[in-house]
Amino acid sequence: MEQIRPFSTGGNYVNFQLAEDDVNRTADAYRGTYERLRQIKARYDPDNLLRVNRSIRPSGPSTLQRHAPAGSHRTVRTSRH
């Protein structure tokens, strides 16, 4: 791999990463937008529910408690046919 690096643009495809590749390799795939994508992920999916092997991890701690304050339980009713 190192022999072809001089001919590479420096990018990579997330779908072609290996299991042993770390988060830095994933960040490299998104180039300069990775931190912005992490902030968006933190806002819309703070608990990382929507994830795949190489997903963008949300920035900051989990905010599950913020979305479900104590005593605010909702009952979901389903109908049986």
Which helices and strands occur, and which strands form pairs?
Elements: H1 23-30, H2 34-44, H3 64-67
Textual characterization of the structure:
- It is built from three helices and no strands.
- With 81 residues, the chain is mainly α.
- It has helices at residues 23-30, 34-44, 64-67.
- Residues 62-81 have low confidence and may be disordered.
- The termini are far apart.
- The protein has a domain at 16-63.
Outline the low-pLDDT stretches: 62-81
* Rg over C-alpha atoms, rounded to the nearest angstrom: 19 Å
Distance between the amino and carboxyl termini: 59 Å
Give the mean pLDDT.
Answer: 75
Multimerization status: single chain
Structural class: mainly alpha
How many individual helices? 3
For the secondary structure, the number of strands is: 0
Which percent range describes the beta-strand content? under 5%
Task: Briefly say what this structure is.
With 81 residues, this protein is mostly helical. The protein has three helices and no strands. Helices cover 28% and strands 0% of the residues.
Which short descriptors sum up this protein?
flavin adenine dinucleotide binding, 28% helix, BBE, elongated, FAD-bd_PCMH_sub2, 81 residues, mainly alpha, oxidoreductase activity, BBE domain-containing protein, 3 helices
